[in-house]
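new request in #modeling-help
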Amino acid sequence: MDNAFTEIAFWTLAIVTVGGALGVVRTHNMFRAALLLVVSFVGVAGIFALVNAEFLAVVQLLVYAGGVAVLVIFAAMITTNVTEGNRSTGTQPFAVLVSVVLLSALVFAILQAEWMLLPDDMPAPLAAAFVDTPAAIGRMLLNEFVLPFEIAGVVLLAAVIGALSLVRER
Amino acid sequence: MLERLLILSAILFCIGLYGALSRRHVIAVLISVEIMFNAVNIALVAFSRYVQPAALRATGEVTAVAESTVLAGQSFAVFVIVVAAAEVALGLALVIAMVRTKDSVDVTEASLMRR
C-alpha cells in the first residue's frame, strides 16, 4: 500500500481537494465557487478510490460532482448576479478563530490517539470484503442496516415533497 | 496513512466551517456545509479501512460479526451522502423561496423568524 505511486496519488489528491475547498470559501464569484466545488468533490472521489472504497468513489462522482454540483450551479445562476454577492459577514475574524482552534484541537487529538490498526496482512475474509465493496455494502444495507435503509428512502421522499411545496407558486 | 487521512478530513472540515460562518451568500453557506459532509465521509472511509473492528479485537479471530462490520464505515458514508443530497435539494428550494419573498440571497437578511 505504501509505495511511491500511492504517496504521489495521495498528495496530489489532497492538494486538489484542499485547494478546491479553499477556493470555494475564498472566491467572490458564485459560479467559480460552484466549479471549484466540483474540483474538490472529484479529489475526494479519488481519495475514496485510494482507500479501497471504489463504490463510494463512483457514488461520489454521480451524486456530488454530478447532481449536487448541477443543482448548485443552476441555483446560483437563477438567483443572483453571480459575479458578486459572496461578501463576508462581519464575523470573519471570529470564523477564522473558531476554525483554527477546532483544527488544532482535532489534529492534536488525532496525533495523540492510539489507534487499533488493522494488520497489513488482513485475514482472508476481511481482505475479500475490501476487494468486492459494492457486494459487501449491499449485503450490509439489507441486513444490519435495513431499518436505516428504509428510513433513508422516506427521508428522500419527504425532501422531494418538501422541496416541491417550498417552490410551488401560490 | 490513517493519521494523514484524518488530518486531511479535519482540514477540509475546518475550511467548510470557516466558509459556513463567514460567508453572506446563502448558496455559499450551503456548499460550505457540503464540504463539511465530504470531510466526514473521508474520516468514515479511513476508519473503515484502517481501524480494527471491535469484534475482531475482542476475540482475535475473524468472526462473522467482524466480517460483516468491517465495511460499516463505508455504509455510514452511503447514508451521509443520502442525507446530504436531501439537504441540498431542500436548501436550494429554500434559497428560491427566499429570493421570491425577500429578493435577496444574504443570510443576514433572513430574519423573518426573529422578533
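bot summary: Chain A is about 75% helix and 0% strand.
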